[in-house]
Write a structure and sequence with these properties.
Number of helices: 12
Distance between the termini: 49 Å
Strand order of the largest sheet: 3-2-4-5-7-6-12
Structural class: alpha/beta
Number of strands: 14
Largest sheet: 7 strands, mixed
Shape: globular
Radius of gyration: 19 Å
Amino acid sequence: MATETLTLGKAINAGLRKALESDPKVVIMGEDVGKLGGVFRITDGLQKDFGDQRVIDTPLAESGIIGTAVGLAIRGYRPVCEIQFDGFVYPAYDQIVSQVAKMHYRSRGKLNIPMVIRIPFGGGIGAVEHHSESPEAYFAHTAGLKVVSCASPQDAYVMIQQAIASDDPIVFLEPKRRYWEKGQVDLDAPLAEAYPLHSARVARAGADVTLLAYGPMVRTCLDAATAAAEDGRNLEVIDLRTLSPLDLGVVYESVRRTGRAVVVHEAPSNVGLGAEIAARITEECFYSLESPVLRVTGFDTPYPAARVEEEYLPDLDRVLDAVDRTFGW
């Protein structure tokens, strides 16, 4: 077993390398992904090893990147597109929603669009505007797209390979503030035996409250669970992993045991993923709930300036406050 300690960013790089080695139809494309290795160096070294016909530096035109990738996917390639920052995806929104998501349906199943759109998302890095957004609800709302988010180096390594191997178009959300966090990665893990891509799982078992998160907030919830344990509370943390389709079976099982649920995400609360998850839990687990399903989210404002972003982002204290409130009913 080739197990190494890697950062989440290096794990994605290793997963991309494995996909390039495994399938000659895989191509990577985006702004500065080649010689520079991407703004976060996620594709570092790949153009040098696989050439500029498979790791392609594109013009600064997101709609052009996605539009070109659609044509490649129709012709049998498996393009992996990098959107440099979350806030830069909007020029490509028309292509993603009108073409990527619709082509399989429009062709009555004759055409597949096996492409991955990588988006570093979320805040916490002190960036300027348009560099710290959480656009996941736009894509999770769009029929025809699948949306996933990794939260650990092991998941990052496996999930990016699973996404590339899928015949469906997948928006792959990478928690940029976690790029430098380290973990153990099994580099020999066979995809056929890996945890399914579109499945949630328990990140920490508990009995008192269920915390639900994805991407960057999984670590925040795990830290909150550790802190709560000092006060005698046993919090269960579930990493949702897949945002569309949602996998809520493990969530329902947990909430029926704990009777309490708190959903945590960086995106604003208004019409966010937390609202959908809270509604479904209420529908399915109503008679098990000891309190309403609560949400801890970003605020319903544009993302703030870097100096005050920590006041905007959900943190350990806000999560623990919500946990306390679930016991007040």
